[in-house]
Amino acid sequence: MAYFEHEGCNLHYEAYGHGAPLLLVHGLGSSTLDWEMQIPALAAHYRVIVADIRGHGRSDKPRERYSIAGFSADLVALAEHLKLGPVHYVGLSMGGMIGFQLAVDQPQLLKSLTIVNSAPQVKVRTRDDYWQWFKRWSLMRLLSLETIGKALGSKLFPKPEQADLRRKMAERWAKNDKRAYLASFDAIVGWGVQERLSRVSCPTLVISADRDYTPVALKETYVKLLPNARLAVIADSRHVTPLDQPERFNQTLLEFLQAADLQSQDH
What is the pLDDT of residue 123? Predict the structure, then answer.
């Protein structure tokens, strides 16, 4: 367990294994624990770095407005602190949004980009969009984090044999700092870099669960805007694919990373 400071905020990270650097970034309201099923498999081949975004996990939770660009700047500072050079980046959900932000702002920092169950923008356009966001926003303010964690657990891990994952989800969610959680949620709404995706030059893998919150078709649309991207759909999975289909996820990711490494050797 290690910490570094960026702009007055202490940020928690962990590093495992040796080799080319591989940075794994979690989703909203989560932490480095999103990757517990990946670290052993990936650290056999790479130097794996997992980080808690500010406002999350063991990182500080400053009372301020958060932004995707700010989260991205924290990770640039982490890469500089560890003298990583270009990294393989993997981001889940909000971590994917941070990855897109990094890829359009600092393309030279990425060796490859893997986006898991995410999107390059969260625009609120129609009346229905506004209603859906308002509903989520209100519920998050009204309900306790424990209640939200239980509801999320039963939605994301509905199978009888997933009881352990449901319990973990509820426990982990309850540990969130509510104000930081809401500030992070606010950072997502209205954010977007979709119009700049042509700048993402590195090999890109978009992983979509077949039963993610947003349809596979949405991912197909933005994959076409990325110069060097392909889509992998993982069956019988919901939003947290690294936890509900770890073997399939790890295999898909490792094959992509090894191909990206070969590609970079050719250039």
Answer: 86
CATH number at residue 38: 3.40.50.1820
Question: Dihedral, CA atoms, 233, 237, 239, 240, nearest 10 degrees?
Answer: -110
Residue ranges of the chain whose pLDDT lies below 50? none
Domain that holds residue 50: 2-122+192-266
Parallel, antiparallel or unpaired: strands 9-16 and 2-6: antiparallel
User: Which positions ≥6 away from 93 have C-beta within 8 Å?
Assistant: 27, 28, 116, 117, 118, 239
Asked if residue 133 is part of any domain, the answer here is no
CB of 209 within 8 A of CB of 241? yes
Give the whole-angstrom CA distance, residue 25 versus residue 79.
Answer: 13
Instruction: Quote the number of domains for the chain.
Output: 1
Tell me how far apart the alpha carbons of residues 214 and 115 are, in angstroms, rounded to a whole number.
14
Determine contact, residues 194/226, Cβ cutoff 8 Å.
no
pTM for this model (two decimals)? 0.96
Give domain status of residue 45, yes or no.
yes
